[in-house]
Amino acid sequence: MTSQELTVKKSGGYSGLSNLLRLENSKWLANRRWLIQSFVWFFLVNGIGLLMVVNDVIDGIYVNIPTVPDMVTILFQLMGTLGAIGVIVLTQGDIIKEKQLGTMSWVLSSPVARVSVILSKLVVNALYITGILVFLQGSLGYLLLNFSYGPVLSVNAFIVSLGIQALHLLFWLSLSLMLGVFFRARGPLLGISLGFMFLQPIIGSFLGRIQPWLQRLMPDGLVVSAIQVALSEPLTTSAPLLSGVFCVIFFTALAIWRFEKEEF
Amino acid sequence: MSENLVINTHGLTKSFGDVKALNALDLKVPKNSIFGFLGPNGAGKTTAIKLVLGLTKPTAGSAEILGKDMKTDSIEIRSKIGYLAQDPRYYEYMTARETLRFKARFFYEGPKKGIENKIEETLELVKLDDKADRPIKGFSGGERQRLGIAQAMISDPELIILDEPTASLDPMGRRDVLELMEALSAYATVFYSTHILDDVQRVSDAVAILRKGELIAQAPINELLNGRDGTVYYVTVKNSAEPALSILKRQNWVSNVSVSETGLNSTLRIRVTDDQAAEDELLKLAVNEASAKVVEFGQKHYDLEEIFLNLVEVEQ
């Protein structure tokens, strides 16, 4: 049992982070999950978008040809709505399943800082989810639009709009992880996050009656902002962006704070 | 004194609501020992282990683990501990080699080749080298336990904590694990919980017995097996033990004598304070001075099960 040739790691505030990042990455690579998700989301986002266009062809003649703004709106609404559901479904078990199975307590029996667990899940999931659901599908959508309508959309504006769309999915990702820390079963996580997502219009209009600007803080405001930016239209408000960034930081901080107190 | 202790707890208490899972635990685990942590199911053994590992937080009390404060130096403590859980769970999609690689990377920076060599050595030691590249979801209970021990020892820890390491194993698996524990004790302290008393008697240097969250005994195993308040000898004589009884009671190295009768024979149980005097004098006194017809004589050796049941039942 010699280990003289090995360099021992030093403990610190982010102990175990690099190893946990590698672990989370391996979960996406195992069984080609990243590839399967890429295909699934291609059909869900661009596939459904294409079907909507094809449906408008009757006897080989295009009727009600959708305009570029229509197509951009469809693309971003699909990425936003289905993407939010996808994020919640894909990450609902990330923390809860590990708590239930006991792998979390196994990992935490090693020299691991608890903050590293949350950060690794957030960072790796954020990269894969925004990469597959937003940047890959957005890019393919952009190419299809370019192919069908010519170069009508600004590349730079489109990239910025995908960044806003990514922020929208980060909102749901950080919410899902935070709820995963607080609860030991998936029911409350799914109930709260999906409930909030579907009830956004009602909650938004209720908040709007209290203060009109409160309505703009809802996460679906980010989808509207992304569409405006993609079409090179002026932003009506930056409130969703500020609210989105704040919520991602707040949910992550709350998750870390609660996870430090968690007992296994 | 405390430098020789790898686990030193002071009034460690853990409550879940109104239930005290652990009550004022003062546990002292000496360095380089194989320490058996005994107790019936639900006694609080796993809770105590989780507290040591920082997986749960104490309601009251404190502890030094490997000389470090349990509350403030938890990560540093865990960098020197290897742990096998009662029902170990790993990432099922990983192979045994990947599992050990994942674990080793928490402890070692590199070089890569050194880590891979270490993994290979460890796999050979637990006899999993031929299954190293199979996903662990197909492993048997015994293989999982061996993998559990491998991941606990991959970092060359100073303290190895094993929670019920033999509970789910067949006799051969148990034997293998006990042999591994003995091998591990050459370079680390092995602290393990169990309720299998045969295992404890076979490999442990010291034991602590826990019941309903309270520590009811803690001693080196020999001390416990010989009787905690001195060595006990027995002399079985034919007919009456009265003459021998009165002579033995007068000896200053005898602290207590009791008699039980079985048919025509009587058995004296003599607790002594001086083993040498007892060995030299006891039989002579019984045969020569009391003229007793001795049919059996010897030192009473307790069985751990007997001691355990006595302690647990007396406390109840």
Describe the fold and architecture.
The complex is a heterodimer of chains A (264) and B (316). With 264 residues, chain A is mainly α. Chain A has one domain (3-260). In chain A, 76% of the residues lie in helices and 2% in strands. Chain A has helices at residues 17-29, 33-54, 68-91, 93-101, 103-108, 114-149, 155-182, 186-198, 200-210, 212-215, 220-230, 239-261, and strands at 7-8, 57-58, 61-62. Chain A has a two-stranded antiparallel sheet with strand order 2-3. Chain A is globular. Chain B is α/β, with parallel strands linked by helices and 316 residues long. Chain B is 35% helix and 31% strand. Chain B is built from eleven helices and 16 strands. In chain B, the strands form three sheets. A six-stranded mixed sheet of chain B has the order 7-9-10-4-11-12, sandwiched between helices. In chain B, α3 (96-104) crosses α4 (112-125) and α9 (242-249) packs antiparallel against α10. The model of chain B has no long low-confidence stretch (mean pLDDT 89). The A-B interface holds A 1, 3, 5-9, 11-12, 15-16, 18-19, 22-23, 26-27, 30-31, 101-103, 105-106, 108-113, 261, 263-264 and B 50, 53-57, 75-76, 78-79, 81, 83, 85, 87-91, 93-94, 102-103, 105-111, 114-115, 117-118, 121, 125, 153, 156, 187. β1 (7-8) of chain A pairs antiparallel with β8 of chain B, so a sheet runs across the interface.
Write a compact overview of the structure shown.
Chain A contains twelve helices and three strands. With 264 residues, chain A is mainly alpha-helical.
**How would you sum up the major sheet of chain B?**
6 strands, mixed
Write down the oligomeric state.
Answer: heterodimer
- Calculate the mean pLDDT score of chain A and round it: 91
Which outline of chain B best applies?
Answer: elongated
Helix content of chain A: over 70%
- Coarse shape of chain A: globular
- Total domains of chain A, how many? 1
Order of strands, main sheet of chain B, comes to: 7-9-10-4-11-12
- The number of helices of chain B is 11
Unreliable stretches of chain B: none
Content of β-strand of chain B: 25-35%
Strand content of chain A: under 5%
